[in-house]
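User: two proteins, same treatment. go.

Assistant:
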Amino acid sequence: MKLYKHLGGGASRLAAIWAEFNSPDGLPHRTDFSLKRIGALASSFLVLREGNAGELVVVQSGTAIDHIWGRNLVGVKSGAMALRHDVDLAAHKALAALEQPCGIHIGRTLHRASGNALKHETLYLPVRSQHGRQLVSVTDFAERLHMHGLLGDSSPVTGGEMYFAYFVDLGFGVPEVGHLMVA
């Protein structure tokens, strides 16, 4: 998979780990992404699964992700993380990627009540687990020093917008809708 050559540092590392464990016999297993293996990526690491009502549910979230949202996200459903109009698009793409295993690359800007904005890109990749398919992800922040400054900003996220979202073919095809289209 050549994808990781076109990504930020964290997403590139996640893609390399995924490619290391991917095989013609099946997707990498969730346990291939242990804290020891992902190392410094842990703070911006997130794992999602499909919930009972077709919503996404957070299974694991890193400390930087939790801090940005102002709470521990484990168990939180995607609807509770809604950002204006983009939650339906992101959830729709993620559910489609679980159904037909493919990656998703999303770029988003979050806005805080303080007026600060946080531009970031997230790569989601499918894995198998004892509970079915899940998505593992890593978020790369546009300005690393700016992100560290925002860690001290505890004002709530008030909105945001997605500036791109597309499926990534990992060798299993992609859903027809939205393949490499800018959202």
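Protein 2:
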Amino acid sequence: MVEAENPLRQLIQTSYTAPHTIVDQDGFALGEQEILENLLDSMTVTELRKIAKRRVWSLSGTRKDGLVVQMATHMLNSRDDEAVLTQLSQNEQLLLSATHTLFNLNTTLYLEQFQHVWQLVLGKKGSAKRYVSALADLGLLYEVEDAYGDGGLYRPILPLSEKVLPVMPLLPTEKTAVSPTP
């Protein structure tokens, strides 16, 4: 028996920012709402409710398909809402800003990239994993498996708007050297 292709796996292999169209198994183009619903449908009800709780969205009903539609609608309607940043802790904001500045969060990133930013760029100690998990709990990222079935890869659930994504000045603002005078 051949197992049906997992829609999440199909979405993982296709970037939202790719110049091509995402199609279903019959070759029909999928709209953004449908793509998002397919991705959200691969999550558990607990994960969906966790995101909704953190984002202060109310969901009604208990059927997963209804929750998925409600979540997709909330996400699409709030994609440019800068208030999402106020729901982040200072460390989550720092990690989000610095990682986006260096790597662009609208791509797939390894946990190691977040860890690199956390320790070497921001000078923080310990693991960045809990802050990356907090960004996932807010519905900004989700964890995917790589080609070998290992986790540790993260993608945005939706492309994050430039209005929402902060950019961090990472270069020193003071002069570090004096130019020689003639």
